[in-house]
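User: My collaborator and I are trying to settle a disagreement about how two of our proteins should look. Neither of us wants to argue from intuition anymore, so we agreed to look at predicted structures for both before our next call. Could you fold the first one, then the second, and keep them clearly separated?

Assistant: That sounds like a sensible way to settle it. I'll keep them separate. The first protein:
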Amino acid sequence: MAEKGGEPLGSMGNDTALPVLSQKDQSFFDYFKQLFAQVTNPPIDPIREALVTSLISFIGPKPNLLDVNNVNPPRRIEIAQPILVEKDMAKLHAIADYTAGKFRSRVVDITYPVAWGSAGVEARLAGLCAQAVDAVKQGFNILIVSDRAVSRERVAIPVLLAVSALHKHLIAEGLRTDVGLVVDSGAVVETHDVALLMGYGAEAVHPFLALATLRAGAALRGKSAEEAVANYVSALGKGLTKVMAKMGISALMSYRGACIFEAVGLKSDFVDRYFHGTASRVEGIGLFEVMQEAVSKHQHIAGFQIRCNVLCIHCSLCLIVGKNHNDIRPFSGFCGGENLQTLSLCLCFGFGTFIQTDNDVASGFLQVQCMGVTLASVTDNGDLLSVQYAQITIGFIINLVVFVTAHL
C-alpha cells in the first residue's frame, strides 16, 4: 500500500480460521464481514464510475434537514477523505484556537487499568458513554476516541466496540447530531478496519501507529516518509470506495453509520446491545470474552516472547522458518522502525510485524531481523547469542525484552 498506493492483490476466498474458532488472538475487526449488494441494489464499478463516488466527510454537528427556516445552521469541518495524518490531528486537538471557539474537541480515552481484567469493560463502556454525554452538554462538538494511553498498566477496549457504543448511546440520548466522532487509534491498519469504523459512526480516522511505522521504514523501501504516507492514504481511500461500491453506495456520507456488516461468532445479545442493526446468525462469544482476548494479548505482550518455530505476533499471516532454513513461508505485514520504537508499538497493539531472516551458514546461527535491525541471534542448538531491548518513546514507555529459541 505504501509502495504502490493500492491494496494488495490476492485470490478470491480466505481459508483462515474464523476468529471465534482460531487458537490465536485475532483482531476484533475480523469478527465482522462485509455485506454485498443484492439484485435490487446492484453494485457499482468504483473505477469506471469514479465520477459519481465521493469520500468527502464532515466533522462536527449536523444541521436539521427538516428545518427549512434555519438561516444559521451549525458549521462543520469538511475533509476530502476520512484518513487524517499527524498534522490534521494536531489541528483537531487545537481546533478551538483555529476557530475562535466555534469548535471544541475533547479526547475520550478508551483505556482502563489492566488490573481490572475483562470484568471491568462493561463499567468502563458505561463510563465512556456518560463522559461523552457530559462533554456534549458542556459544548464540545468533536470527540476524539483515542487509545494512545495504552501502557503496561492500561489496556485498550477494542476501538470498534468503543466507537459503536458511543455512537449508539449518543443517538439514544438525542445528542448524536450535536457532535462529531473522530478515531485516533493504533489498532487501525487496513481498509476493512476503516470501513467498519465508518459504518459504525466515525467521521474520520487517524491510524497513528500505521503512519508512524511507514515514516520509520519508508527510507528502507526507497521512499520518502511523505510519499509512503500519501500512498497509504490513497490506498485506503481506493479500498474504502471499493467496499462501498460492493453495496451500490457511491458516497461516504451515505455509508457512515449504515452498519452494513454481518457479525460472525458473536453473541446476538452482545451485538444487539452494542452493534444494534447488525445481523448475527452464528452465535459465539460475548462482551467479556472479547475483552478477555484483548487483556490476554496485552498481558502476553508485556512478558513478550518470540519463538522461532512460529515468528508470529498475534497475526494470521506469518513467516515460518524451518531449522534447515529451506522451509520459508512469506509473511506480509507492517514493518518496524529502524530503532525498534515503532516495532515495539506494533507489538503492544498486537500487530504482526514483517520479519526477515538472514542465515549465516558459515558461523552456524540464525539472525532474526526486522527491517535490517537484528532482534536476536540463535545458534543451531538453540543457544541465545544476543538479544535486543527496545523502549517505546511514542506516547508511553514499555521495556520490551525479546527471547528467541530455535525449537522448530
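The second protein, kept apart from the first:
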Amino acid sequence: MTNTMPTAERYQENREYHRQYYHKNKDKIRLYYKLRYPQRKEKIRAQVKTYRDAHKEEFKAYSKWWWKTHPSKLKRKRIIRNLGFYGIIWSQFEDLLINSKSRCQICGKKLWFGSFDKSEVPHIDHNHETLKVRGILCRHCNLFLWQYENCLPQLFSYLEPTKREIGPFFYGKQPS
C-alpha cells in the first residue's frame, strides 16, 4: 500500500510526533546525550568543521544577510563586546541607560540600538586615562568630548607662545 499523503502533510505529522515524543521523554533524552556527547565530542566537532568548510560561502552569505536584517543586534553585540574593556557588565550598562532615560547626557538626544543613524546609538563615555565610565552619550557628543579633552590643550599650547589670535577670517578684500 502506497502512502498517498502529500509530502508537506507527512512532514508536519512527523514533526508533530517528534515534538510530542521529545516533551514526554525530555529528561531521558537529555541524559542520553549528556552521557554520550563526551565519547563522540571529537567526531562531532570534526563533522561540523568539515560541513562548514564545504559550505563556507553559504554560511558567509547567511551571516551577512542575518546581520544586515538585524542591525540592532549587531550594534548591541559590539557594545557588549566592548563592555569588558571598560570593566562593566551588561546589567550595569542597562542601569546607565535607565538612569539617563535612554538619552544623551549632554544634548538629550534619544538613544536606541535599532537606529540606522550612528549618532542615535548609545556610546560609552569614559576617561581615557583611568578607563572609568562616566556615562552614556550620542556619537556626536562623545566625539566632541574626545576632541575637547585631547585637542584643545594642543590648540592652546599652539596659541600661547606667540599670542596668536583666532579669527575673524576674511576671503578677498578685508574691511577697513
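Some points you might bring to the call about the second protein. The two ends are 106 Å apart (CA to CA). DSSP finds six helices and two strands in the chain.
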